[in-house]
């Protein structure tokens, strides 16, 4: 579907209706601090195209009337929709005259809360083990769109960004009468991982990239090698009221940023905000989803309520009848098999950058800690002999996504740093500017330090 609209900005341009696991406007709002104003102060008239490249795949292209002739394609965070980038990148890019494209990575929906007895495949459902709003007691599970009705692997995510880049260029040529002169790739979290891979494997498609809080993949260092250590120590830490020194030291020793605690009953611990205190229980759910996605030897069965114990309280309200990775203790003890490592090797990051790339990460990122995702990628880039094409900025007090800033903890949003870094990337590409610090990581406290 293609149409011209008087305003392409988020909240103004028409979007498809929401459906279970599919929230076009909510996906974007959840990634910014509450009250964050749009980067576009005035309406942006232009054309929006909604299209698909195949089963379950969707993408959006927007071209402002005052198009500057260039394109920015977005990798997509988590397993969110094609509209997830609207607030963090879309308005910012459109206001600067860029055409904008984003996809859902061929993942048909994000996740659906449903009763265990109704889930279509009990081997792929994550049974909620925590007592938030009685989700565990009701036997609630999360059905993940990247696992059902089919597994959509990370290699496919990477191919999707390349294919969307090609398709967007073609469709923009149809809309505007000419193809983009330059193309930039930008992305957050899993989307940042896509950007890294695009620049490594398909550099002919882009002129430069910006990656933010990006996931790093190698057979030996990845989400599945560090998150289980967090899951193993968190029950004792939460039970102690966030005072268990042994558990605390174990988590820090495992490469996680220090916890931040405060006197707020809704958000007492930044670590627990990623564990048991609020859906979707990121650290636990992420471990389950990626182990089931990547490890052909993994097993799971969610069972019927009462199916799982709460790992913090150890209460189950009956005899657990789940098994395998559906059990909290199995996720906490998980280690990738050799088969999983082999699968990861197929799409692992190489650091072989033939185009300029700027990286942003935060010192308070609990889900994608810099120690496991930012630093290792710099090491890979250096090992590949490509340091001259990579700049890293580590933002003091930056969380994984800016919505956590609303919870307190002394956090600061990273979005101003990201936008500043994109402007720097444009100067690198267009003006051949070579900023100080290529091949090094710089800690920054204000956006002005990115110069």
Describe, in plain words, how this protein is organized in 3D:
The protein has helices at 24-29, 86-95, 154-176, 190-201, 223-239, 245-253, 270-273, 282-294, 328-332, 338-345, 370-373, 375-383, 415-431; strands at residues 2-5, 46-51, 59-64, 70-75, 99-103, 111-115, 125-127, 140-144, 182-188, 208-212, 300-301, 323-324, 357-362, 390-395, 441-444. It is of the alpha/beta class and 451 residues long. α4 (190-201) links the parallel β9 and β10 (208-212). α5 (223-239) packs antiparallel against α6 (245-253). The two termini are 40 Å apart. The model has no long low-confidence stretch (mean pLDDT 97).
The class by helix and strand makeup works out as alpha/beta
Distance between the termini: 40 Å
- Please report the total strand number as a whole number: 15
Query: Mean of the pLDDT scores?
Result: 97
CATH superfamily of the largest domain: Alpha/Beta hydrolase fold, catalytic domain
Order of helices and strands: EHEEEHEEEEHEHEHHHHEEHHEHHEHE
């Amino acid at each position: 579907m293609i149409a011209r609209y008087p305003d392409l900005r988020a909240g103004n341009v028409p979007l498809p209706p929401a459906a279970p696991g599919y929230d076009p406007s909510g996906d974007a709002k959840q990634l910014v601090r509450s009250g964050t104003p749009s980067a576009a102060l005035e309406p942006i008239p232009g054309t929006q195209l909604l299209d698909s490249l195949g089963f379950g795949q969707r993408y959006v292209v927007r071209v402002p009337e005052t198009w500057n002739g260039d394109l920015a394609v977005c990798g997509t965070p988590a397993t969110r929709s094609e509209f997830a980038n609207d607030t963090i990148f879309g308005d910012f890019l459109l206001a600067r005259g860029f055409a904008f494209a984003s996809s859902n990575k061929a993942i048909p929906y994000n996740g659906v809360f449903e009763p265990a007895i109704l889930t279509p495949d009990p081997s792929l459902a994550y049974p909620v083990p925590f007592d938030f709003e009685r989700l565990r007691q009701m036997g609630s599970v999360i059905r993940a769109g990247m696992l059902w009705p089919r597994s959509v692997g990370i290699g496919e995510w990477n191919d999707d960004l390349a294919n969307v880049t090609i398709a967007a260029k073609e469709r923009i040529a149809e809309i505007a009468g000419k193809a983009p002169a330059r193309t930039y790739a930008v992305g957050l979290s899993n989307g940042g991982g896509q950007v890294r891979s695009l620049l490594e494997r398909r550099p002919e498609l882009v002129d430069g990239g910006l990656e933010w809080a990006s996931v790093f993949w190698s057979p030996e260092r990845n989400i599945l090698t560090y998150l289980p250590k967090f899951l193993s120590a968190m029950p004792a830490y939460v039970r102690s009221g966030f005072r268990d020194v042994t558990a605390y030291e174990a988590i820090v020793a495992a490469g996680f940023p220090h916890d931040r605690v405060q006197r707020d009953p809704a958000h007492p611990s930044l670590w627990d905000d990623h564990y048991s205190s609020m859906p979707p229980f990121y650290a636990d759910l992420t471990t389950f989803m990626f182990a089931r996605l990547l490890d052909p030897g993994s097993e799971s069965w969610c069972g019927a309520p009462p199916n799982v114990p709460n790992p913090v309280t150890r209460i189950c309200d009956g005899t657990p009848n789940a098994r395998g990775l559906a059990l909290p203790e199995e996720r906490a003890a998980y280690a990738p098999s050799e088969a999983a490592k082999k699968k990861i090797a197929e799409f692992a990051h190489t650091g072989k950058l033939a185009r300029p790339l700027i990286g942003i990460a935060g010192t308070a990122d609990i889900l994608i800690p810099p120690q496991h995702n930012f630093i290792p990628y710099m090491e890979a880039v250096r090992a590949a002999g490509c340091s001259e094409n990579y700049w890293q900025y580590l933002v003091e007090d930056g969380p994984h996504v800016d919505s956590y800033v609303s919870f307190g903890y002394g956090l600061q949003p990273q979005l101003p740093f990201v936008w500043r870094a994109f402007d720097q990337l444009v100067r690198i590409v267009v003006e051949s500017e070579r900023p100080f610090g290529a091949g090094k990581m710089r800690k920054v406290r204000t956006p002005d330090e990115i110069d």
